[in-house]
């Protein structure tokens, strides 16, 4: 997976973008935590439950959380969250679900580490990798999705049985590594998130 | 460049949050203009060697822009404030931020990098490496490599230095390669290369869409 640090950084950027009037230290902390949470399935895997990038990276976790949140805040009489924290609580909860899905799961899905998106229905890992180029000689070249045979084919490095996502708790090689930043663009994303927090605080104060 | 579409998507992601109450379609259009503007130096490449990633991709553009905005908005009779009010001031600062991080930052980490402090020093720098904690080696980072030359005993710092404007050409659809070649030229307009670039296109679109669907009650004021 692109590292948890990068997931957290994207979570920070999403939080700054979508929290709006609910932006403060506490709400940003909640959203950031949600962005990093899916990677905790590596810890569960080390305990023998599920697998890294599978159990908490499943789309069903997001669907379940979003459905529950919708029912709780919109359909139910006397919502607990609304009674407790009002508009603020509802906004923070939705942005946290978005950060979990987009920053936590999405980032891993678009990398070669891959995500078992349909776990536990399917053990297969999926990765959206490739390129999309418009060439004057060859037209549109697209290699992210394979449309062959009427099926939407995504690249897959394997299933839970034969593909191990490398992490500190579930090392794929011989050496334990806690990966923080893997490449230049990831470093820029982390730097941007670090700079965006004081920038947002400055504009919040209203003097810039 | 990571494609212009990626620059724009990351710029939107940043701008939605930083613009806050001033977020509107016009502001987004201005941000889009600011984040695409540096690519104009590709056209200069036709008349000046190595102009792409040099003329408008130097970090000095950020420093000068930030200085000008700071000077203008803090003086009496500010031009930006007089003409567009607080909206203009916010937009200017967000513009500087987006130019620095969504454009120069991402280009720094891509291919031959950017000519970072041109025209003071004519040298391309590219940011590449990794940072990890290993159980056996401790903290390892390979972005900046400091080594002692075994022959001269002098310290050498390698931070991704590349060539100069004379020998560096960053390919673009306007000028795919430095020398014009025989036969039909293959001009490639990349939209996304690699999973992460497509990812940021999705995230940018998601942020704009989510912001549209959000509703904030009248009695809550956003900054």
3D structure, described in words:
The complex is a heterodimer of chains A (208) and B (223). With 208 residues, chain A is mainly alpha-helical. Chain A contains six helices and five strands, in the order αααααβββββα. Chain A is globular. Chain B is an alpha+beta fold. In chain B, 43% of the residues lie in helices and 12% in strands. Chain B is built from six helices and seven strands, in the order αααααβββββββα. Chain B has helices at 4-19, 25-36, 41-44, 59-74, 79-108, 195-213; strands at 114-115, 124-125, 131-134, 138-141, 145-148, 155-158, 188-193. The mean pLDDT of chain B is 84. At the A-B interface, α1, α5, β2, β5 and α6 of A face α1, α5, β3, β7 and α6 of B.
Features:
heterodimer; A: 208 residues; two-stranded antiparallel ribbon; 11% strand; globular; B: 223 residues; alpha+beta; two-stranded antiparallel sheet
Summarize the structure.
With 208 residues, chain A is mainly alpha-helical. Chain A is built from 6 helices and 5 strands; from the N terminus they run αααααβββββα. Chain B is α+β, with helices and mostly antiparallel strands.
Q: Strand arrangement, largest sheet of chain A?
A: 1-4
Order of helices and strands of chain B: HHHHHEEEEEEEH
Q: Whole-number average pLDDT of chain A?
A: 86
**Count, helices of chain A:** 6
Class computed from helices, strands and strand pairing of chain A: mainly alpha
Number of strands of chain A: 5
Question: How much beta of chain A, percentage-wise?
Answer: 5-15%
Q: What is the overall number of helices of chain B?
A: 6
Strand content of chain B: 5-15%
Biggest sheet of chain A, open or closed, and with what strands and sense? 2 strands, antiparallel
Order of helices and strands of chain A: HHHHHEEEEEH
Give the termini separation of chain B: 33 Å
Number of strands of chain B: 7
Uncertain parts of chain A? none
- Assign a percent range to the helix content of chain A: 40-55%
Gyration radius of chain B, rounded: 21 Å
Low-confidence stretches of chain B: none
């Amino acid at each position: 997976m692109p590292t948890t640090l990068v997931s957290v950084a994207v979570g920070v950027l999403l939080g700054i973008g979508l929290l709006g009037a609910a932006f403060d230290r506490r709400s940003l902390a909640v959203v950031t935590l949600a962005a990093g949470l899916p990677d905790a399935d590596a810890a569960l895997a080390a305990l023998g439950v599920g697998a890294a990038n599978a159990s908490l990276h499943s789309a069903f976790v997001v669907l379940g959380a979003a459905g529950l949140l919708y029912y709780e805040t919109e359909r139910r009489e006397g919502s607990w969250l609304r009674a407790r924290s009002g508009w603020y609580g509802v906004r923070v909860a939705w942005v946290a679900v978005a950060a979990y899905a987009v920053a936590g799961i999405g980032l891993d899905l678009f990398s070669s580490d891959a995500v078992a998106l349909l776990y536990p229905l399917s053990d297969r890992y999926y990765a959206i990798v490739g390129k999309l180029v418009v060439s004057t000689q060859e037209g549109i070249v697209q290699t992210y999705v394979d449309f062959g045979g009427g099926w939407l084919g995504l690249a897959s490095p394997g299933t839970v049985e034969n593909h191990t996502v490398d992490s500190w708790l579930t090392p794929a090689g011989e050496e334990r590594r806690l990966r923080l930043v893997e490449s230049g663009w990831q470093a820029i994303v982390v730097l941007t998130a670090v700079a965006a927090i004081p920038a947002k605080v400055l504009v919040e104060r209203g003097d810039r | 460049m990571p494609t212009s579409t990626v620059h724009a998507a990351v710029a939107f992601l940043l701008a939605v949050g930083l613009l806050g109450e001033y977020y509107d379609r016009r502001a987004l259009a201005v941000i889009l203009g600011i984040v695409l503007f540096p690519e104009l130096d590709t056209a200069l490449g036709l008349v000046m060697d190595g102009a792409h990633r040099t003329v408008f991709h130097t970090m000095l553009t950020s420093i000068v822009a930030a200085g000008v905005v700071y000077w203008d908005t803090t003086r009496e009779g500010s031009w930006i404030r007089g003409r567009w009010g607080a909206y203009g001031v916010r937009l200017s600062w967000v513009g500087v931020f987006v130019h620095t991080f969504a454009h120069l930052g991402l280009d720094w980490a891509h291919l031959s990098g950017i000519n970072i402090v041109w025209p003071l020093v004519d040298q391309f720098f590219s940011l590449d490496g990794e940072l990890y904690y290993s159980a056996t080696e401790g903290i390892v980072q390979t972005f900046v490599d400091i080594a002692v030359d075994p022959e001269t005993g002098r310290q050498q710092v390698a931070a991704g230095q590349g060539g100069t404007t004379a020998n560096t050409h960053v390919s673009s659809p306007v000028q795919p390669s430095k020398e014009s070649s025989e036969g039909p030229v293959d001009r490639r307009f990349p939209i996304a290369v690699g999973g992460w670039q497509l990812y940021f296109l999705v995230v940018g679109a998601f942020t704009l869409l989510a912001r549209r669907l959000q509703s904030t009650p009248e009695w809550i004021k956003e900054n």
